[in-house]
Amino acid sequence: MPVVRKVQGVLYRVQDLARAKAFYGETLGLPMRGEDPEGRWVEFGPPRGPRILLHQSPEGAAGNAGGGALFEVRNARRVLNRLKRQGVRTGELVEIPGVMVLGTFYDPDGNPLHVVQSLLPKAPRRRKAPEEGEAGPAEGSAPGG
């Protein structure tokens, strides 16, 4: 039995919570999902799925090291260019032919974030099989006929 039930989200420590809140909410356009009344943390993300939790670091505490959140986008190059025009520090754009385009950018505290654009072909939509008791195609009828 797996210990982990689901990925809850990503935690970033930030030096200036108000600045980080503006970046994630206004620059990236993520909806705010919750906020500590005492001003120690704020949470961003879609109604369902993983969240980004920003936590006010104690004075002089080191920032995050390592990986960063991945945001699925339709066009990674366009998103990185838009962020760059808004004054956001961006990194290189890497393409893995036939698989993905991955771009890196940084929040005001230098935490890495990534945009990813899938280059994989979309799977054809499957037609849902009728549930038990639902009417399906009449026996002997040809598909589409």
Automatic annotation (TrEMBL):
InterPro entries: Glyas_Bleomycin-R_OHBP_Dase, Glyas_Fos-R_dOase_dom, VOC_core. It comes from the Bacteria. Residues 135-145 have a biased composition (Low complexity). Residues 120-145 are annotated as: Disordered. This is VOC domain-containing protein. Pfam families: Glyoxalase (PF00903). Residues 6-118 form the VOC domain.
